[in-house]
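Researcher: Here's a chain I'd like modeled. Treat it as a single chain, no partners, no ligands.
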Amino acid sequence: MAKYIYQYAQWPQFIWNDLEINVILGKVRHLQGKIIGQMGALGFTIKEESLLSTLTLDVLKSSEIEGVTLNYEQVRSSIARRLGMEFAGMVHTERDVEGVVEMMLDATQNYNVPLNEERLFGWHAALFPTGWSGMHRIDTGCYRKGGMQVVSGPLGREKIHYQAPEPARVKLEMDVFVKWFNEESDIDIVLKAAIAHFWFIMIHPFDDGNGRIARALTDMLLARSEESSQRFYSLSSQILIEKKDYYDILQKVQYTNGDIGEWLGWMLNCLYRAMKTTEKTMKRVLQKADFWDRHKDTNLNSRQRLMLNKILDGFDGKLKTSKWAKIAKCSADTALRDIKDLIEKGILKQEASGGRSTNYELNEI
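Model: Modeled as a single isolated chain. Structure tokens:
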């Protein structure tokens, strides 16, 4: 049977081909600088909006990779509250949402605070506020006390994808990892982020939540690499899109004798694609800012502002009177009046497709 990477004598001494990795690392660093430059030129409100959108996306998608679906409005409201931003339509948030947001913001906003065991335990406890993961009670706020296998498939016919180091080794392994994580080194910090992700996943120190914590640690080092707590791209969103490849490459490299070049290449390319997506997202943020700039003197009520912001953020599905009434918490008659008023002002129009029910869309983007 093939040995796992941590079973080789040289673990955790990782190797890779510098020439190959430096090509993609250079591309990532160039695009990273370009995005930071573009964002620096934007106004405060647009920057704040971009930050809120990116952080919301990051929390949602990192959880979704693990099959956990969080409520978009709750995540957005929780982040806004914690960053001292106010916007219309803020909602009450559940404890599990608060926990994920807390962890992610601690990683990205306090990126220069050294990592330690207590902080990691705090993140883990925040992810599982009830001490349960689904139907299973788990140990929270401490390293795992039992063996750890990553498995899939039906009961009785499970397929083992990975067997993590035995629990007796975990604290020792994590002490080495945390020391390395905090140390200054010659390794480029973006590259260090990719190494940290893989290394942490291989140790698999917790009963659950290892993937989400690994991605938070990656974001923390990426923030360090930019010397900024402002996130304008979401690596987790891109990993979710490439989820199958993500798991495939982890599974492949876990059997190497220390050469993690293939993982680093994949991760840096994934990061590059995440940054490319940001360029498109920035376009939408700029459109939104431009829209409100043009309508700063337009007389609109709070329901109209709420709904227009939702449409500008990329509304899910068709906009109908019934949906407006439900989200804006008003009667169907009030919703129709709001919509007709926006049509008269040239902001909304009826969708050309027609059909049995009437749908509306923005007139000017």
